[in-house]
Structure formats: structure tokens, C-alpha cells
Amino acid sequence: MATEDDSLNALLFEAIVSHSENIIGVKDLSGRYLFANVGYARTFGQPADTFLGRSDRELFPSDIATSLRAADRRARFSQSSIIVEETVPVNGEMRTYLSVKFPIHDTAGKVFATGLIATDVSQWRKSEEQLRQSEELFRQAFENATIGMCLAGLDGVLLRVNPQLCRTLGYERTELEGHPLSEFTHIERGDARPDYVRHARNGDAAWSEQDRRYRHKDGHDVWCKVSSSLVKGSQGEPLYYISHVRDITESRQMEAELKRLASTDPLTGIANRRSFFEHIEQELQRLRRMQTHVSCLMLDIDHFKTINDRFGHPAGDEALRFFTMLCQQRLRITDVFARLGGEEFAILMPGTPLDGAVELAEQIRQLVGATPVTLPGASVPLTVSIGVTALHRDDNSPDAMLRRADAALYQAKTKGRNRVASVREAA
Ligand SMILES: Nc1nc2c(ncn2[C@@H]2O[C@H](COP(=O)(O)OP(=O)(O)OP(=O)(O)O)[C@@H](O)[C@H]2O)c(=O)[nH]1
């Protein structure tokens, strides 16, 4: 006889199963449906009643029905419930369900049916698979990249490094991970932390690029272009940095070598005309800011043409190199020695007043005159004429000073060569 409690339970059961998003069913021992909730109607597009009395064999392909039945059987023999993942076709599309299956007992404690509550997890599985695929894609790109890559925490500590970064710096993965990249960096500007760590601390710029000099494990320097971007979480909160680290050592060396070649005279190895002008420009700037002296010598080997004529051009080259070497013996580290062209040279002397420059010019003149150059078959005496002047703060270009030096040299030449002449002011 039905009690009031039974009717309440029936109402509760009805309310729960009809509002559930899940598929809820009960099958008898032969696998025929005793109960199917509205979830069945929603999923399969047929009234829930149409399932009653039918088995999975009539609803699904036989291999699927067999595996559903096997799970039902396992549930019947289980103590409480089992959870299985089941895939079934729904309107021509395979869908994945997470099913809780459990035995249902009669009042005598005998199992007479199997219950099931199934949740459609197809979308989760799909998202999981997409996530797995994109993680795999990232992993492959990270591991196989021909550029160094790393993930670093907001404090700059390396969380993950790729094999190329290990090769670039010469360390094992375990020697890098857990350490800040700054441990392997030269301190160039007083702060070893990469810019992105400073940016993170200040909460600005999500991207930065900079050239940094690292120490390879074997001790040599490695120049790298480091491009870093901030990875943010779903709420926009900063999580970590991902950096590309490109080894640019070779191109920096090439750049430096090109710069050196562009500013060097190939025959003598000293500064060339272009570089000399740049030095005068710099000194002019300094002179305008500071109380100092800058002097300049312009040197021209006397009758150099006769050396070429007598001994040939290669011997003339040798004489030019020898002359360079002689002058260098008298120079300070701060002096700039340049070959302006042909047999014409110049020396810029920061910190030296005109009188001191004249003195040095005289020393050079005497040294050159006293030291003949050894050429094939002869020891040839050289003499040099030298014009001396000073850089003035109101010189509006290097040319202004060079014109005075040239005028002084002209005087030395016209007064008989092998002498020093100076011009203090503009003519
Ligand atoms: N071997 C060699 N000779 C050069 C080079 N550049 C210029 N010369 C030569 O230097 C000589 C310069 O001659 P001039 O300008 O007449 O001057 P100089 O014979 O030294 O006579 P003064 O300067 O008047 O004392 C020329 O014969 C040029 O061919 C060079 O790179 N190598």
C-alpha cells in the first residue's frame, strides 16, 4: 500500500530526473529499458516512452550495444557503482558520455536492474584534445626551434629552456632551469636583469627586445638578440615571459670588423681620413664644453716621389709603413694618428697645447731624419715637413683647423722642408 512518503519520493524522483541535464535510465537484467528520462528524448529526438521495453541492441550498432551491455553487467556485479566512458552515435555523430552505472536491488536485496546516469562530455573531450594538440604543437616548436627559446617567471628565473638555448650558451638544461638568465649575463649597464623583468616589476610594456652579452660555459662571449613577451592569464594577470634568444655573435663581429675596416687605412693600419675627421668633430664638441687644448700635426714626407721613382711603388709602401712605425714611437695612447692620403699624415693630440705639439713635432722630425728606411739594396734617409696648429672652440668644422695645419705645412715646405712650422690663428 502506497504511503504518503512513497508519493513524496515519487514526486521528488520525477522532479529530479525530468530536470536533469543528464541521461538517466534503468534497464532490466535482459538489458531492456524499464525507465528513460527526458534526457533520452532530448538527445535522440524521440519520446522517452519509445525506449521502454527496447534494448540497446535495437538502438545502437551491435559492437556498441555489446560494450554498453558489458558495462551494465559489470555494474550489476559491483558493490556500489562504476564510472565508464562510453561512445555512442547520436544523430549520426559519435558522442562521448561519462556514465555512472549501478546495481538496483529489490526489497529482498536481489539485483533486478541496472541504473545509469550519463553526462555528455564530448565538448570537454574535444577541448581537452584541442588543448593537448596545441600543447604538443608548442612543445614541438619549442623543442625543435633553431632559435634559443625560454620561459621565465616574472622574477626572471628560467622555468623552461629549449635545446637550442642550451647549445647557444653551452649549458645543460638542468644547469639553466631554476636559475635567472642574468647569472649568465655580463653586467653592461649596471643592471643584470633583462629589461622585461624591470618592465614586469613596473607593470608596463608587455614586449621588449634588446641585445645582451652572455658568457658561454667555456668562457667566450655570446651576443644575443633577446625578444621577450609577457604571457597573461585569462584575467589579464601576468604569468611568465617567453623569450626568443638569437645568437648574433657572428654578425656583431662582422659589424665590428666592417666598422674597423671603414675607419682604417689598409696600408698602415692607422686611422683613415674619414675616421680622423670624426675624431676632430668629437674633440671640437669636447673643446666647446671643457677648458682644454687640442693640437694637430700635419706631416708630409719630403720628396717621397723620388723613393717611388728609384725603388718602385712597393718599396714606397714599405717606406710609408716604416714612417708610420717611427711616428708611433712618439705618440701617447690618446693621440689619433691618421693617414690622410698618399704620403700625408696627421696626428690629433687631445690635451696638448700648441707649444707641446711643436715640441713633439720636432722630436718626430729628428727621429725620422736620424732613422733611414731599409729598402731593397739601399738604406734610404727620409725627412719630414710638419705643420702644427691647434683646434679652436670657434672652428665651425674640422676643415677650419685642417686648413691652418695645411698652411703651416706649406710654410715648412716652402722654407726648405725637413722642418716644423706652426700657425696659431687663422690666416
Ligand atoms: N708607394 C706609394 N706611393 C704613394 C702612395 N700614395 C701616394 N704616393 C706617391 O707619393 C708621391 C707624392 O708626391 P708629391 O705629391 O709630388 O710629393 P713629394 O714627392 O713627397 O714632394 P714634396 O711633398 O713636395 O716634398 C707620388 O709619387 C705618389 O704617387 C702610396 O700609397 N704608396
From TrEMBL:
Which SMART domains does this one have? GGDEF (SM00267), PAC (SM00086), PAS (SM00091)
Single GO MF annotation: catalytic activity
InterPro entries linked to this entry = DGC-Regulatory_Protein (IPR052163), GGDEF_dom (IPR000160), Nucleotide_cyclase (IPR029787), PAC (IPR001610), PAS (IPR000014), PAS-assoc_C (IPR000700), PAS-like_dom_sf (IPR035965), PAS_4 (IPR013656)
PAC domain location is: 208-260
SUPFAM superfamilies named among the record's database cross-references: Nucleotide cyclase, PYP-like sensor domain (PAS domain)
Native organism taxonomy: Bacteria, Pseudomonadati, Pseudomonadota, Betaproteobacteria, Neisseriales
Domain GGDEF spans what residues? 292-425
What's the source species for this entry?
Answer: Paludibacterium paludis
Domain PAS intervals: 134-204
* Protein name, UniProt field: PAS domain S-box-containing protein/diguanylate cyclase (GGDEF)-like protein
Q: Which residues form a coiled coil?
A: none
